[in-house]
């Protein structure tokens, strides 16, 4: 709350950069002022209660009339419970409103109102000159008999799928490939719970903004996770970490669930935009002075994972109007999809600074007490989107798809997926 009290102008300026109004921040400040005023009133009433109690005792010893003092005491006793309720309500209002205020943007974030303001930083790999009309990954799924969307829809609904045969093995190969590289670089593999309760989830996202894409388990205070970043970060809620343990580096393996509401284009069909997908995620918890360098490390890991697959992709820095609530700075990796001639996002790498750890009440020890760590996350491999990019960029004229060399050791050394 210190920033809301000491430098609200910085928060208002940040909201303006994002194209948002000041209402949420103004609500926080007003509720905080009311809460502090009620705290002061409560302290004064308790002080008056103690004083009057002493005066009653003195009046009784002196044989004086205590009735006026007793009336004052009764009024205080009536007001204090009501005041405590008002104080708790003001605090709850303040904290709920604070959960809706986004993170402060890094100064390096480019200005922009939406995707058109994002800045391309680099391109990697060569786009294939096929010499034939490339098929979409949806068409190649049928050619390879690699996925069964129709039967999945019968039992689970649209945007679910069966992966079959070589494509199922290729997904496992991608997971093993990402885990192997990240483990070699010091990231501890972790399989987290695939569900989280609401209070923990409020620590890592703005549920008011994010809840519409999540699956809630009916009659339980549990949500299916949308990414392993969330449980891996919330794991240390209400804890004080030892500074010698930082940075903590994790490689999360999970199945993730998102409702993905809204209409999407033809290129989002098949296995591109689905309700369930596997992902290997990078998560870091560190001291604030290390977070910028570790953000670059996470990004480089993601770049290396895609570059070794020899897929064409680009690195984009997200602008103020397209960065989301939680991140202070964010980069996306976008793969080239030849069937539609578009770059499409396959990786996100975010520095969330202290935003999540403040909400989670996560701290680390310092010589002067405690401080708030920074949290960062980045995709390692999101399997379905990477599979789609492989299908489109590695396809051959005969309908087969070349398997990227780093994955072949998990594919029985096969060089290609063959048409069914």
Summarize the model shown.
With 420 residues, the protein is α+β, with helices and mostly antiparallel strands.
Question: Any chance you could write out the topology, listing elements then pairs?
Answer:
Blueprint: H1 2-6, H2 8-18, H3 23-62, H4 67-98, E1 119-124, H5 137-144, E2 147-148, H6 149-156, E3 162-163, H7 165-184, E4 188-190, E5 195-196, H8 198-202, H9 207-210, E6 216-217, E7 222-224, H10 229-234, E8 240-241, E9 248-257, E10 276-286, H11 291-307, E11 313-317, E12 329-337, E13 342-351, H12 355-360, E14 363-366, E15 369-371, E16 374-382, H13 383-393, E17 401-402, E18 416-417
Parallel strand pairs: 4-9, 8-14
Antiparallel strand pairs: 1-11, 2-3, 5-7, 6-7, 9-10, 10-16, 11-12, 12-13, 13-16, 14-15, 17-18
Helix pairs in contact: 3-4, 5-13, 7-13
Radius of gyration using CA atoms only: 28 Å
Write down the CATH topology of the largest domain: BirA Bifunctional Protein, domain 2
Global outline: elongated
Give helix % range.
40-55%
| CATH class annotation of the largest domain | Alpha Beta
Quote the average pLDDT. Answer: 90
Task: Count up the helices.
Answer: 13
Instruction: Trace the largest sheet across and list its strands.
Output: 1-11-12-13-16-10-9-4
Structure write-up:
This protein is an alpha+beta fold. The chain folds into 2 domains: 2-98, Serine-tRNA synthetase, tRNA binding domain (Helix Hairpins); 115-417, BirA Bifunctional Protein, domain 2 (2-Layer Sandwich), CATH 3.30.930. The chain contains 13 helices and 18 strands. Helix 5 (137-144) packs across helix 13 (383-393). The longest helix is centred in the first third of the chain and has 40 residues, at 23-62. The protein is elongated, with a radius of gyration of 28 Å. The mean pLDDT is 90.
